[in-house]
Design brief:
The structure is a homodimer of 205-residue chains.
Chain A (H helix, E strand, L loop, with lengths): L5 H16 L6 H7 L5 H6 L3 H33 L6 H14 L10 H10 L3 H15 L10 H21 L16 H16 L3
The structure holds a DNA duplex (18 and 18 nucleotides).
Chain lengths: 205, 205
DNA sequence: GTCTATAGATTGATAGAC
DNA sequence: GTCTATCAATCTATAGAC
């Protein structure tokens, strides 16, 4: 790990450990230990533990949010060309596909998805505020979606966040699985399970 | 707080702080401080911090699970009398109503719901194992529900857990609310929002 | 049962030599 | 840039007086 760029080694190790055990449960000593790097290197390169987390979010979310925004634009334009309003399923897909596929992409990360899932569910201010600041502009566009009373739409979007966040977090760590079930866990399978579920919920009578 | 039963004061304060800030973010000093009780009292009455959490779960979940089990039985019997299979919406309701209404009930707690929401989402072993041990027997009964491939049912139940857990946790602490929306937060409103959403998701094509 | 005092471990951050 | 050594704070848990 440490034979290349020290800063990158810290980023990689921190991302993995934050995703697996959470921000507050991961000490700088565990991070620098896994990265084979000196303890003081974190504060030299990033300034603080919180700034390290912020750097991880920015590193991944900047390109991810851009992809999401492009997908969303494409869905809107295609619907416009056909004189329709965008389908809920397409909007959902535009939002979740980039993040969920990110795990398998070449520049992507195996662990960042779980970290995002944690951040979406976070009630602690440190992590949540850092994350919300990065995704709020994009997330607010979901409120343009369907023909619903604002309050009903609000709740259903909250539920949507709950589903996605939970799906991202369990990432292989299952609870309450019956013995005869062995669920697929790759990104495509998850997306194909998620889209109809979320669409049905948002469009429920 | 401390003028009555010391043990109960600790339970109440711990429940509140665990719900608001999480188990690991709440020190015994904060608990005993809020309960106006000596620090050593926790270990005297409960043995350890973990045993205190376990006591909180048992205190509330024992009667709650019993109510849930009775509701579920009633739904089954009513369907049987009509020669039908139970409706998904009724099963959902049997599960979530006791917990969500618990906030307003006389013996209930304002904060226990948020604590359950946290526990459902917990990836840390300490909290999750304590909680799962209490709810797994009941939760597994959900797998008897509908006419779905086992894997698809499995995923949809996972999503269901995500929705409920998130709804319980946000409990007044909202993220990304448009300015013109002021959602109701009482138990009945939440249940009426949840049931159709969850039912539609579980029954999606 | 309740208290003080403290042990023993871990944390984030930093000073200063190299 | 990297290292050692350490500070100051925090934590759970416990021993022992009252």
């Amino acid at each position: 790990m440490a034979e290349k760029n020290t800063k990158q080694c810290i980023l990689d190790a921190a991302e993995r450990l934050f995703a697996l055990h959470g921000y507050h449960h991961t000490s700088l000593r565990k991070i620098t230990g896994e990265a084979n790097v000196n303890l003081a290197a974190v504060n030299y390169h990033f300034g603080s533990k919180e700034a390290l987390l912020k750097a991880i979010f920015e590193y991944h979310l900047t390109p991810l949010n851009q992809t999401r925004q492009e997908n969303l634009k494409a869905v809107r334009e295609q619907a416009l060309q056909q004189g329709k309003i965008p389908q809920v399923a397409d909007i959902i897909r535009a939002f979740i596909e980039p993040t969920l596929r990110y795990r398998d992409s070449k520049s992507g990360s195996n662990y960042f998805i779980a970290l995002v899932g944690r951040a979406m569910a976070e009630t602690d201010d440190t992590v949540r505020n850092l994350f919300l600041h990065q995704v709020k502009p994009l997330g607010m566009q979901l409120f343009e979606i369907p023909d619903l009373q604002p309050e009903r739409l609000y709740w259903r979007l909250q539920f949507t966040v709950g589903v996605i966040s939970h799906a991202m977090r369990i990432n292989g760590k299952f609870q309450m699985v019956p013995e005869n079930v062995h669920p697929e866990q790759d990104a495509d399978s998850l997306i194909e399970q998620l889209v109809p579920y979320l669409t049905a919920g948002l469009e429920a009578p």
